[in-house]
Specification:
The protein has about 210 residues and is of the alpha/beta class. It has helices at about 1-15, 25-35, 40-45, 55-65, 115-130, 145-150, 165-180, 190-210, and strands at about 80-90, 90-100, 105-110, 135-140, 155-160, 185. Strands 1, 2, 3, 4, 5 and 6 form a 6-stranded mixed beta sheet that branches.
Length: about 210
């Protein structure tokens, strides 16, 4: 209930459902159910006694949550970054994520075709806007990190376990959710659509972390 109340406040403040006629509470419950792993069709069937809507409506409501992504700008001691592979249709893509190891909030999410130092620079810039300082970056020993972080003047440490467990743990949560559709997004899905899906996932995850 606390999470639902927080979502209601956030959605009303951002006004992402301006023209929809369905009750906001139903939209939010449907979105949370889908986030938790219930399929789009099962979500619409499960709630049809309260309100009738299509599985496509659930998909659209969920994607609108990507508009709510934000983090406060503040001092951050340490951030861990990592990546994983996902399939979009028959092609492999990389998902990058960054987590504040003290708060466990996800600060950045990005999808790329390649894993290069240029991708690292672009990704790191995307989450540094939420930092008042230059935080310590925890990384694995992949070769694309070192040059990029040195060029940006950031301190970094290689770490296998320790504080990097935070980002490993988050990827475990994401991968468990992606197993619901066999770790592959549909063939007609675009990179932009996948990024919206992931960003919406992060929005709800971060809210869970903040109220826990």
């Amino acid at each position: 209930m606390k999470m639902l109340n927080q979502l209601i406040k956030l959605v009303r403040r951002k006004n992402i459902f301006r023209w929809d006629r369905k009750k906001m509470e139903i939209k939010l419950i449907a979105t949370i159910l889908y986030y938790a792993g219930i399929s789009l069709r099962k979500t619409s069937k499960f709630l049809r006694d309260f309100e009738k809507f299509s599985h496509e409506a659930v998909r659209k409501w969920y994607h609108k949550f990507a508009q709510l992504f934000t983090n406060s700008r503040k001092y951050r001691r340490c951030i861990a970054i990592d990546k994983t592979k996902i399939k979009i249709g028959n092609e492999w893509w990389y998902v990058w994520a960054a987590i504040d190891v003290d708060t466990w909030e996800i600060l950045g999410i990005m999808v790329t075709k390649w894993r290069t130092s240029i991708d690292v620079i672009k990704f790191v810039k995307s989450f540094l806007v939420y930092c008042e300082n230059k935080p310590l970056i925890k990384i694995d020993r992949a070769p694309w990190y070192r040059w990029a972080l040195q060029r940006m003047g950031l301190q970094y440490e290689h770490e296998t376990f320790g504080e990097r467990n935070a980002i490993e743990g988050w990827f475990n949560i994401l991968e468990a959710r992606l197993k619901r559709f066999w770790k592959r997004f549909p063939f007609n899905t675009s990179k932009e659509s996948v990024e919206r899906w992931l960003t919406a996932f992060v929005v709800i995850y971060n809210l869970e972390v903040r109220i826990s």
